[in-house]
Amino acid sequence: MLQTTGIHHITAFVNNAQENVDFYAGVLGLRLVKKTINFDAPNVYHLYFGNEHGSPGTIITFFPRDNSRTGTIGGGQVKTTVYAVPPGSLDFWMQRLNSLDLAYDTTERFGETYIQFKDPSGLQIELVERAEGAPSRWSFSGVPVDHAIKGFGGAVLGSNNPKQTMLVLEEILGLAKIGEDQGQVRYRSTGDIGNIIDVNIGQEERGTAGAGTVHHIAWRAKDFAEHEAWRSLVEEAGLRPTQIVDRQYFNAVYFREPGGILFEIATDPPGFARDEPEEEMGTHLMLPEWYEPQREVIEQLLPDIQVRALGGVQ
User: Fold this and answer.
1) Per DSSP, what are the bridge partners of residue 266?
2) Is the CATH number 3.40.50.920 carried by domain 7-312?
3) pLDDT per residue over 93-147, tens digit each?
4) Which alpha helices (DSSP H) does the chain contain, by range?
5) Exposure of 100 by Cβ count < 10 A (0-12 exposed, 13-18 middle, 19+ buried)?
């Protein structure tokens, strides 16, 4: 049986591009690892943030568009993106959020404490301490490496059909059910990052797409051969996967599970250093070759953005 090691990336809709960079780089201290475009709408950025390498399991990506319609978080969506930080880091993060006047709450589930807050577009974020997973070596904007976000701790899913969503997690993706708590069922993948998925048991009011909502969650395939096997498995299960799509930095297959959530399966290779040196990742606008003849026009359409530390310092 195929088993995913966990989350590859999560992709969301947000509003202003500079606001997005300021929050995920400036506040959360993540690295902007790729600055490219929405291949289906080249007048819109596609921004990728993660650890120093842009490793699978650490990447959150965004389509920022000014004056976007605001979405509503609900059924058929990833409701909350969970980040893992090293043990002993929650006090640092609460102090940081306090110093920035960013509102947050704390909660407990499955014996863990979570800090809950929102990004400027309304995406729901949680931080949780986890010992497992490689530490990040990226330090930026006052976030030291010993408290830096490692990558995804996991996600909370809201489903229009929770029983069917959980069947897909178990029987298709190979996750193991490990517990129930406060109206949620917890699943675990085989990896050590992006590996804990909580599903709300109750059927959710259906969410609507727009700024402040997640578009899709992607699961890891270790290589291209396994990716093809995943597509065959999904097709045999009657879930109508797309054809394999080349996304430059990974290959992708998409399908909508019965609870309404858009799932993707993405390959770990080739990674984000395929078109620029790793030390320069995120510093140039990278275009696929079929858009290169339109670079000048595209650059005029896109707003200027800068990666800057808190206070606007470069």
Assistant:
1) 220, 252
2) no
3) 999 999 999 999 999 999 999 999 999 999 999 999 999 999 999 999 999 999 9
4) 17-21, 90-99, 162-167, 224-236, 295-301
5) exposed
